[in-house]
């Protein structure tokens, strides 16, 4: 499809994404949180100074980006979305991945987020950003400002965007950390900020050597966690006022999060007055969607999607069942 699809085309995709969020065998029974993480990681490689990376291209289809340790586990999200790609082959992966996050947030009780389509898919891996641009949860305030500042985010926007930690959980075999931030990790709210600002968090060292912070909720018999970067938001004098603001004012958080998440998904995108993307790849090729993955094994070391081909969806399903059984 050379031209950008209509709003009606995208509305049909939105409805189908909403239908697939219920995944009883995955984590807390929902694909929503991992779809949000996919949208964030596919956009958060942007560098403002060099104008490289960002949400255009769907670079995670290639090993150089999909195989980045920071993206471990996101093959689950990409496999969840493959039936949508099969039903709507015209949509680009770059649009599908970002739209998936927007729909998931709304379906989990979050705000409406402005989303614009038109991203294209790279035809090879020559324009992929270098690894190391995504945040490291083991670090502190300076690291957060370095990573997010590179993308053009302010202190307030860094804190608002961190509110996505209200969703999902960490896995020791992916990030090295383990556990959920909040009691209900499939419901979007400001609980992350309320817990971060009000509870006494104790340092805990995991068996793999990673350090995180924990709070044991005796009433629910549940252990919650925070990353070192989360704690940095509470202790840094410039971040903490926004943590307290969002803990006290859910509406303010929802409004600011909607704005910053929309900004995140537009990183690296250039549009004209009519909203048409004017990036060089889009100008030369129009709306170019990579084909859906084959049902045969990948054959190239640079093959798409971290060498997770369609026939590997069943092993992922079985792995999800094991993960669910542990919860």
Features:
327 residues, mainly alpha, 42% helix, two-stranded antiparallel sheet, 13 helices, three-stranded antiparallel sheet
Structural overview:
With 327 residues, the chain is mostly helical. It is 42% helix and 6% strand. The chain contains 13 helices and 5 strands. The strands form 2 sheets. A 3-stranded antiparallel β-sheet has the order 3-4-5. Strands 1-2 form a two-stranded antiparallel ribbon. Strand 3 and strand 4 form a beta hairpin. Helix 1 packs across helix 5, helix 2 crosses helix 5 and helix 8 packs across helix 10. The longest helix has 16 residues. About 5% of the residues have low confidence.
Short synopsis of the structure:
This protein is mainly alpha-helical and 327 residues long.
Mean pLDDT: 90
- Please tally the β strands and state the result: 5
DSSP summary: helix tally:
13
SSE series: HHHHHHHEEHEEEHHHHH
